Design the sequence.
């Protein structure tokens, strides 16, 4: 069974087609990079795949669950980490996770395991308001892993972090994939996508314009020359990474 299957997935907003009949498959344990300019349809796609937004047409399954008809069955199977840091800053990291463990119906022993997994042991009893952005991001990933999801959606997990912290987050992501977790990753950092992703899809104006391994994309678009994934991205979209569409 594939981890994710999207079939002609479409979403319209007031006559505007944000995502237009996209189709792709993600295999279990794969890190799947989903790249595009701002406004290309990345977040809309994630919201449909996680059952937060109903598709206008088309279908999608995640871990075998229809994202519309089986939303309740889907939720325990996935973890979602968005770029905004929505944590309770007056509580400690451990208390944050204990609270969510109760919501998930997860044993509190799991809290200590995920804190260790993301490298927060020793600071777990400190209030979140004393944390750096990188530590908050680690906590968000820990929260997304509490219930041992089969698929983890990461939306810009290293945005705004210093290089050392970003490297540590990337190491956590790679380790998760080695453990069999499927990772659906959006990022504006092309070097990050190149290093981490088994395959990459590039979406532009609601359409998937390329889908292959990073090396495959560079070979296809390089015309015999050595180019970077960022070169591929700009060649296919005609835009810089941070310009809105």
Sequence:
């Amino acid at each position: 069974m594939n981890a994710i299957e999207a079939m002609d997935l479409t979403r319209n907003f007031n006559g505007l087609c944000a995502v237009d009949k996209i189709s792709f498959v993600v295999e279990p344990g794969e890190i799947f990079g989903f790249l595009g300019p701002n406004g290309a349809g990345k977040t809309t796609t994630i919201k449909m795949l996680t059952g937060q937004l109903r598709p206008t047409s088309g279908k999608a399954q995640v871990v075998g669950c229809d994202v519309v008809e089986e939303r309740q069955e889907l939720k325990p199977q996935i973890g979602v980490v968005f770029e905004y840091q929505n944590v309770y800053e007056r509580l400690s990291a451990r208390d944050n996770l204990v609270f969510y463990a109760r919501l998930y119906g997860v044993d509190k022993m799991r809290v200590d395991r995920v804190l260790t997994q993301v490298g927060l042991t020793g600071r777990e009893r400190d209030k979140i308001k004393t944390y750096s952005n990188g530590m908050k991001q680690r906590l968000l990933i820990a929260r997304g892993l509490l219930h041992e999801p089969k698929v983890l959606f990461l939306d810009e997990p290293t945005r705004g972090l210093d290089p050392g912290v970003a490297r540590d987050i990337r190491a956590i992501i790679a380790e998760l994939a080695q453990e069999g977790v499927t990772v659906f990753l959006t990022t504006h950092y092309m070097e990050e996508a190149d290093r981490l992703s088994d395959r990459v899809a590039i979406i532009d104006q609601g359409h998937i314009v390329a889908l292959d391994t990073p090396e495959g994309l560079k070979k296809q678009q390089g015309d015999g020359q050595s180019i970077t994934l960022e070169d591929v991205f700009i060649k296919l979209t005609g835009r810089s990474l941070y310009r809105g569409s």
Observations:
- Residues 40 and 205 are 5 Å apart (CA to CA).
